[in-house]
Q: What sequence folds into this?
């Protein structure tokens, strides 16, 4: 048995799957807007579903691009559900009316997340470069809930909303959201180009997380979720994660529209193609994945007492800004 | 707990047996390492991920609604070189804990 993979799961628990990079929006922070890849036919996509089912991957989350741009999304989801996968997606909500929500339910979607970045319509619409998008996203929240699907909301924390995140919580509560994901800003794609305007300073990130963790621990009717390893050393963070540091490449992987696998949507390094190569070989032996799973403390991480918990923070951010997985997360305030 | 009770996993709980990890743990156990907090079954309940250790995983996998508590105890007593009374107590406590969490029901 290869010792370098000791403790590694037999497959990811989640595949984040970009079926298409096409989107009806053009958001300021989008990681994928300028990406291009050939899209697979429905049949080829179903072959991938078969592989994931055989590997007992329990969760598939469709992202994008906008997943509903693909007209066969409902068929793909139905097939994935029939193979025992738990299917969810993130959408900008524009294409979700009552009929679409009912079809999502019929297709087996267990959970649908709507992206809303501000409780103020004008700010959201400006950020998403799409007039009227806030109104339709909020309407989509109600349609999804009305269809009886578990409802989540996703907000990317940036300069436009970090001081007013409590308003996002109020909005989520008003519309029956079960989990609100406050995503950390990633400097990938347009997010990299616009990071000076959108990203917070490390001190601002710290202040945000200290306050947000306090709020999270006081909520009983809404789950507030962050997935940012940089917070591991903060007071109030008492999670016992299955893995330390970034979960990408350990608990999750990302699929591109052509079947290429990357560690996550924000790391543009292809580790293999799921239709062309043996999945186990990619999972256990990819040099990129092995390197991500065995980071070494560099720069200010060397000697830092928190390193054992955060493992250098978000690997995607470190890679985007330095080209090195093992450099410190630029959001780190230590 | 009646020994003829058949614990049944809740159908909406998502779980996966990690055979490779289990093999690693068995080897670590042979070397005398403490493996009590290392998981062989990954389980997602209520949106939270949990790990069940070697014995917990063995019990969980047998909670199929067909296997009685008595059978689970006798199976595991045959596998583990420990006092049968201790296995009996551990199995019953663990199953009761699963029941308290709402992860199984009694058939």
A:
């Amino acid at each position: 048995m290869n010792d370098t993979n000791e403790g590694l799961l037999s497959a990811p628990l989640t595949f984040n799957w970009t079926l298409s990079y096409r989107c009806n929006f053009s958001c300021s922070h989008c990681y994928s807007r300028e990406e291009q890849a050939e899209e697979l036919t429905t049949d080829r996509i179903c072959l991938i579903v078969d592989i994931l089912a055989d590997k007992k991957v329990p969760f598939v989350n469709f992202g994008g691009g906008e997943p509903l741009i693909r007209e066969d999304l409902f068929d793909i989801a139905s097939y994935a559900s029939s193979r025992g996968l738990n299917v969810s997606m993130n959408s900008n909500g524009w294409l979700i009316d009552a009929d679409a929500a009912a079809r999502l339910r019929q297709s087996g979607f267990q959970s649908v997340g709507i992206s809303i970045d501000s409780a103020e319509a004008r700010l959201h619409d400006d950020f998403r470069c799409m007039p009227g998008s806030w109104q339709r996203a909020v309407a989509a929240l109600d349609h999804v809930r009305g269809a009886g699907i578990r409802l989540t909301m996703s907000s990317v924390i940036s300069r436009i909303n970090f001081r007013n995140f409590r308003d996002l919580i109020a909005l989520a509560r008003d519309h029956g959201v079960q989990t609100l994901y406050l995503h950390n800003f990633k400097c990938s794609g347009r997010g990299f180009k616009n990071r000076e305007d959108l990203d917070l300073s490390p001190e601002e990130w710290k202040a945000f997380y200290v306050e947000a963790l306090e709020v999270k621990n006081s909520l009983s009717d809404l789950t507030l979720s962050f997935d940012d390893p940089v917070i591991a050393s903060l007071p109030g963070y008492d999670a016992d994660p299955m893995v330390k540091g970034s979960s990408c490449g350990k608990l999750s992987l990302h699929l591109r529209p052509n079947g290429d696998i990357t560690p996550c949507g924000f790391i543009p390094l292809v580790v293999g193609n799921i239709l062309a190569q043996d999945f186990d070989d990619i999972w256990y032996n990819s040099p990129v994945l092995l390197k991500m799973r065995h980071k070494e403390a560099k720069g200010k991480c060397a000697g830092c007492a928190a390193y054992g918990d955060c493992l250098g923070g978000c690997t995607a951010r470190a890679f985007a800004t330095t080209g090195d997985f093992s450099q410190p997360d630029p959001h780190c305030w230590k | 707990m009646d020994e003829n009770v058949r614990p049944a996993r809740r159908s909406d709980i998502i779980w996966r047996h990690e055979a490779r990890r289990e093999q690693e743990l068995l080897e670590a156990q042979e070397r005398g390492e403490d493996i009590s907090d290392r998981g062989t079954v990954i389980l997602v309940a209520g949106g939270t991920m949990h790990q069940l250790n070697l014995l917990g995983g063995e019990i969980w996998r047998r909670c199929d609604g067909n296997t009685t508590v008595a059978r689970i105890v006798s199976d595991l007593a045959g596998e583990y070189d420990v006092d049968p009374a201790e296995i009996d107590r551990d199995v019953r406590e663990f199953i009761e804990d699963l029941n308290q969490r709402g992860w199984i029901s009694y058939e």
The interface with chain A takes residues 14, 16, 18-21, 23-24, 27, 38-39, 42, 44, 47, 49, 51 of chain B (CB under 8 Å). The domain at 7-102 of chain B is CATH 1.10.10.1150 (Arc Repressor Mutant, subunit A).
